[in-house]
């Protein structure tokens, strides 16, 4: 069994900062890409940022220069600066994880953490 557990969401004023964390645990052999997605109310889930096992990063245009994704061992972080009201959403952690007993990786999701930016 593999679990992704997020933390760090909350309410912040526009212009403020938050850091999200996501820890992967369980019967893990290797972790490939880790990333963060978000889903505002009434909208589709979208990629915010992703980081490969080698440290290559990818960001949505809307967060470039404001958000930074990083990872250490089985944990991925999302540092969010200069937050805007339009960043309000449920943020989900995602990871491509190969279990010790598996021959390939599978997609795993966290339960989501709410980020609310007040204007």
Counted beta strands? 11
Oligomer: single chain
Structural class: mainly beta
- Describe the main β-sheet briefly: 7 strands, mixed
* Individual helix count: 0
End-to-end Cα distance, whole Å, is 40 Å
Taken from the alpha-carbon principal axes, the silhouette is elongated
Task: Please provide the ordered H/E string of secondary-structure elements.
Answer: EEEEEEEEEEE
Question: Helical proportion?
Answer: under 10%
What does this structure look like?
- The protein is mainly beta and 119 residues long.
- It is built from no helices and 11 strands.
- Strand 5 and strand 6 form a beta hairpin.
- The protein is elongated.
- 29% of the residues are buried.
Keywords:
119 residues, mainly beta, four-stranded antiparallel beta sheet, 61% strand
SSE map:
Layout: E1 2-7, E2 10-13, E3 18-26, E4 28-39, E5 46-51, E6 57-59, E7 67-72, E8 75-80, E9 89-99, E10 106-109, E11 113-118
Parallel strand pairs: 2-11
Antiparallel strand pairs: 1-3, 3-8, 4-5, 4-9, 5-6, 7-8, 9-10, 9-11
């Amino acid at each position: 069994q593999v679990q992704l557990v997020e933390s760090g969401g909350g309410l912040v004023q526009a212009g403020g900062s938050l850091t999200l964390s996501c820890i992967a645990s369980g019967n893990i052999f290797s972790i490939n890409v880790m990333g963060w997605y978000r889903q505002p109310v009434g909208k589709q889930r979208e990629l915010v940022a992703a980081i490969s096992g080698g440290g290559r990063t990818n960001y949505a245009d809307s967060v470039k220069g404001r958000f930074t994704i990083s990872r250490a061992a089985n944990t991925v972080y999302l540092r969010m600066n200069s937050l805007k009201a339009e960043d309000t959403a449920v943020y989900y952690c995602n990871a491509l994880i190969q279990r010790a007993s598996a021959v390939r990786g599978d997609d795993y999701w966290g339960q989501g953490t709410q980020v609310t930016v007040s204007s």
